[in-house]
C-alpha cells in the first residue's frame, strides 16, 4: 500500500508536511516527504488521502475491553476473581473475547492496539496482555503476553475482602500481602537459579519476569499515599511499576518524577464515584507532563468508553497539556510505557503498519475517522483504488 498526500504526524523527532507512507508485508517500509514519493508498484494499493491527518494508530494503555463485555452483564464479566486476593497465575488471554462490540468502536476511533487485563479487586489480579484491536482469534491479535502483572492498592482490594470479613481489609494488609508475595517469589527465583528448587510452582513462575524486570507490575493506585506505597514496595524489591490511574498524581508530581516510574492517567471522563477519586481532574496530565513524568492517558474502558480516548486527550489539552504531548500520550508514550514501542506507537520504518487517518486533529470532537489500518490492512474506511 502507498498512502500519499497525507499530513504526516510521525510521533518521532522527524516530522513531515505533506508526505507519504509505503507499507509492505504488514510493516512500514518508507515514510517521507511527497517530493521524494516513489512511483506506485504494479498491483500496489494507492490511498490518496488528499491532505488528511495521518498518524500512528492510537493506543489504549490500560483497559478491560473484551474481559468486561458490553451487552452481556455478569455473563460477560470476567474481570475480577474475587475468591482469593492473590492470583498471579490468571491470564487475560483466557478471558478476553475479541467478539466484544467495543473492539469495533475502538477501530472506528482509530485505536489500533490496547493493553488489557484483570481488574483491581485483588491485591494481585493476574497477567495483562498487549494486543491489536482487529481479529477474531486472540492468539493472532496478541503483540506481547504477558505484558504486565496487575497489582492494586487502596479502596478496591480493601472493600472487596473487608466487606467479606477477610484479609486484607486495610491498606496495611494490602501492602503486607503484596510484600509477602514478592518475598516468596524472590526466594523461589533464588532457589530456581541455584538449582535448589524441588518442584515448579504454578503461582510463583509468573513472578520471574517481574523480578527480572522484563515486565512491570501494573499498579492500580488513585490516592497519593497509595501511589507512594506502590513506589516504596517497587523500590524495596527492585521491580518496575507503571502507576495506573494516578488520580492524585498532580499532588506529588515531583515524587513520581523522582521514582522514575511512568504514569497512565485516568479515567477522568467519569463520575467521582468513590472517595479516592475526589480530586480527579484533567489537569493531572499537564502537571505530570510539566514535571517530566512519562505519561499516557486511559479511559479504563468500560469505566469510560474506549472510543472517547481521543476526546480524553483533547480535554487534557483544554486543561493545559501541550497538544503534542497529548498526542504522544495516546501513541508513542503509551507504547513505551507498555514496552512495545519497538513495533507500534509511531510511523517509522520497520514498525507495524498501524495507521489512523482523520479529517483533522483527532483530539477535536468534530473530527471523523477516514481510515484505520492495522498490520497493513484497511479495517475501517472507504475502498481504495489499485495502481
Describe this structure in words.
The chain has helices at residues 102-108, 138-141, 155-162, 171-194, 207-211, 224-237, 253-259, 283-291, 309-318, 323-329, 332-337, and strands at residues 2-8, 18-24, 27-33, 45-48, 53-56, 58-63, 111-116, 124-132, 142-152, 217-221, 241-245, 263-265, 295-297, 355-358, 369-374, 377-381, 385-386. Strands 1, 2, 3, 4, 5, 14, 15, 16 and 17 form a 9-stranded mixed sheet that branches. An 8-stranded mixed sheet has the order 6-7-8-9-10-11-12-13. The longest helix is centred in the middle third of the chain and has 24 residues, at 171-194. By secondary structure, it is α/β, with parallel strands linked by helices. It is built from 11 helices and 17 strands. 26% of the residues lie in helices and 24% in strands. Helix 4 (171-194) packs parallel to helix 6. The N and C termini lie close together (10 Å).
State the shape: globular
Low-confidence stretches: none
The residue-averaged pLDDT reads 96
The level of helicity is 25-40%
Most strands sheet: 9 strands, mixed
SSE sequence, one letter per element: EEEEEEHEEHEHHHEHEHEHEHHHEEEE
Computed CA radius of gyration, to the nearest angstrom: 21 Å
- The N- to C-terminal Cα distance equals 10 Å
Q: How many helices in DSSP terms? A: 11
Going by helix content, strand content and strand pairing, the class is alpha/beta
